[in-house]
């Protein structure tokens, strides 16, 4: 069933595991992620960036594809459709109107007071409709779609500011930027675990770790032990599926039926996602 993130994240905090947000890019990603969740009996969050939403046809199309697959695949595990890095109040409302069950409002580029005001506006509308909200403070580096943050702009969240934002907005979960990066890491990630612990203690809400691709298992486990209940992964599924398409086409230069190269790519995505669900501990937690 389609649900907000609230229940699944609260349960994850309690059970000391994290629910994966896996980003949609097209039909095959959507199929693979839903199948992975059902086979693993794991709750799942489908992340939709504004760019991916546009690519797939629009928010309504995304919701209809997801609803269609839930029915056809007889999906029984909890599924949330979540706007990833929502850029404005209007985009969040558009996603909610289209049927999303959760939104992120990313005001991380704004001064604190403006980020709080914007996030609060979104929370007021979303909560009236039973939709969960995620906010961000500090700036997560790297690139995801239109969102590009270079090294100089990337900033660690300040715990006292996180506390203020969460308290004044009432968000359901919170993403403090603590050194994680969108896309591949240059070298080993250097996550701010001390601050993560402080932020968790101060805010008391489930924490979100963006840039899940390329974080070593020991860091994933440590983050979960410090209250991280949601981990976002996109690039890794993109990379493994692209490698499969490349291999299939190289091995079969005369192949042209998209089902013959996107089908195997879909299998790769499914295996990647299942591996993450096991690593995050969300398997058999539906
Ligand atoms: O919001 C989406 C994620 O943070 C994805 O990060 O592409 O590095 O896995 P990633
Ligand atoms: Zn992100």
Automatic annotation (TrEMBL):
Zn(2+) 2 binds at residues 106, 136. It comes from Ammoniphilus oxalaticus. Its cofactor is Zn(2+). Gene3D superfamilies: Aldolase class I. Zn(2+) 1 binds at residues 85, 182, 210. This is Fructose-1,6-bisphosphate aldolase, class II. Signal peptide: none annotated. The active site is at 84 (proton donor). The keyword Lyase applies. Pfam families: F_bP_aldolase. It comes from the Bacteria.
């Amino acid at each position: 069933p389609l649900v907000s993130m609230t229940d699944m994240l609260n349960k994850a905090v309690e059970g000391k595991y994290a629910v994966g947000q896996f980003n949609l890019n097209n039909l095959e990603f959507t199929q693979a992620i839903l199948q992975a969740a059902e086979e693993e009996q794991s709750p799942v969050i489908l992340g939709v960036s504004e760019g991916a939403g546009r690519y797939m046809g629009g928010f309504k199309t995304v919701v209809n594809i997801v609803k269609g697959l839930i029915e056809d695949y007889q999906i029984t595990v909890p599924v949330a459709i979540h706007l990833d890095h929502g850029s404005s109040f209007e985009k969040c409302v558009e996603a909610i109107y289209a049927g999303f069950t959760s939104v992120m409002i990313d005001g991380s580029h704004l001064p604190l007071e403006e980020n709080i005001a914007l996030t609060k506006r979104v929370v007021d509308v979303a909560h009236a409709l039973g939709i969960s909200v995620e906010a961000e403070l500090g700036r997560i580096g790297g690139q995801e779609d239109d969102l590009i943050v270079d090294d100089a702009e990337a900033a660690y969240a300040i715990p006292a500011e996180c506390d203020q934002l969460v308290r004044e907005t009432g968000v359901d979960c919170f993403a403090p930027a603590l050194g994680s990066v969108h896309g591949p890491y240059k070298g080993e990630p250097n996550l701010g675990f001390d601050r993560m612990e402080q932020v968790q203690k101060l805010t008391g809400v489930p924490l979100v770790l963006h840039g899940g691709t390329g974080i070593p298992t020991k860091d994933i486990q440590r983050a979960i032990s410090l209250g991280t209940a949601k981990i976002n992964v996109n690039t890794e599924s993109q990379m493994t599926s692209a490698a499969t398409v490349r291999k299939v086409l190289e091995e079969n230069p005369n192949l042209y039926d998209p089902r013959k190269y996107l089908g195997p790519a879909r299998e790769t995505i499914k295996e990647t996602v299942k591996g993450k669900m096991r690593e995050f501990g969300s398997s058999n937690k539906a």
